[in-house]
Write a structure and sequence with these properties.
seven-stranded mixed sheet, four-stranded antiparallel sheet, 11 strands
Length: about 120
């Protein structure tokens, strides 16, 4: 069965960095578009970044030039490097598999707190 397990979240000061990981299993990871989505209390869910199976990437304007999405298909792992963090980046970060432009499987999320 499909599983997505995020890790790497934590508490960081403004201006700091974190690297999130998402370990995938139960499907052929290299065949799928993958995405990172975040959810903050009182805010709408926001797509942060996406990466296609050919390595092409997209970013939300709010994180462009600060966050970097990448993938290691040999290790079935998705990454998100977060730099120059601000309090606005505080959220639960989820990785998701995307099919037909919609997420169909989600991880449990990892909390990022910038304070």
């Amino acid at each position: 069965h499909v599983q997505l397990v995020e890790s790497g979240g934590g508490l960081v000061q403004p201006g700091g960095s974190l690297r999130l990981s998402c370990e995938a299993s139960g499907f052929t990871f290299s065949n799928y578009y993958m995405t990172w989505v975040r959810q903050s209390p009182g805010k709408e869910r926001e797509g942060v970044a996406g990466i296609d199976n050919d390595g092409s990437v997209t970013y939300a304007d709010s994180v462009k030039d600060r966050f970097t999405i990448s993938r290691d298909n040999a290790e079935n792992t998705l990454y998100l490097q977060l730099n120059s963090l601000s309090t606005d980046d505080t959220a639960i970060y989820y990785c998701a598999r995307v099919v037909a432009a919609l997420p169909d499987y989600w991880g449990q999320g990892t909390q990022v707190t910038v304070s």
